Amino acid sequence: MGANKAYKGMGMNGPIATWYTQNTGRGERLRWFVDYAKTVADEVAPGGRVLEVAPGPGFLAIEIAKAGRYSVTGLDISESFVRIARDKANNAGVAVDFRQGNASAMPFLDSSFDFVVCTAAFKNFSDPLGALNEIYRVLAPGGRASIFDLRRDASLDAIATEVRSMHLSAVSALFTRWVFRFSLLRRAYTRETIETLVTQSRFGMCQFKADGIGFELQLAREGQAGMKASRAHTAVST
To answer: C or N: which end of the chain has fewer Cβ atoms within 10 Å?
Structure first.
């Protein structure tokens, strides 16, 4: 269960990174970035340190930085995404420290962050257990993390609805549905699989929340900084 897995998805560099950037920073997905950035205020006190793992083009990290309340860092394995994200942050006039690096071997000291978020990327990690343990390591005691990703049991009808909400061209919509069906769904985790993975990690426990076609996995490092009791056990809500 904790064994590494080979990454068989698309390499997110060059033209693929550009295509991804153009088709995720729009419609409902862009609104989600804006809305979730606002909820970070409920998780992190002013002056807190936020890390986004695998930020891609940087949409969410940039939205979080716009609040001007946090120190924001992004870590992505793709050179193209790091370059794109840095350009977008500069254009937005915000400070985000985008770096290239591996989620399972992060270039950060222990206890460097108060909150870690990862969206739509965890299923692609070749060493998911290592990534979880690294998230735990870089979190300060009492720090929290949220991982958002696709559920393996998401229906094709639900996927089609999600793609329609992105307002893509006909060709891009067709290609995106193909990617969901033949790549992303096959890489996605079931609830049982990811909960088992968490029990093998340094976190040990989690809260699982089904959310549309995906899920949110809430994690906490034990400590004094306001860890919520509801997050110290495994649960599911719909």
So the answer is: C
Nearest to 9 by CA among 186, 130, 213, 216: 186
Domain boundaries, the chain: 15-152+189-237
DSSP output for 25-69: SSHHHHHHHHHHHHHHHHHS-TT-EEEEES-TT-HHHHHHHHTSS
Q: Kindly state the helix (H) or strand (E) to which residue 141 belongs, with its residue range.
A: strand 139-150
pLDDT in tens, 176-233: 555 555 455 667 888 999 999 999 999 999 999 987 778 999 999 987 443 333 333 3
Q: Tell me the helices (H) and strands (E) count for the chain, helix number first.
A: 9, 8
- Say yes or no: domain 15-152+189-237 is CATH 1.10.357.10: no
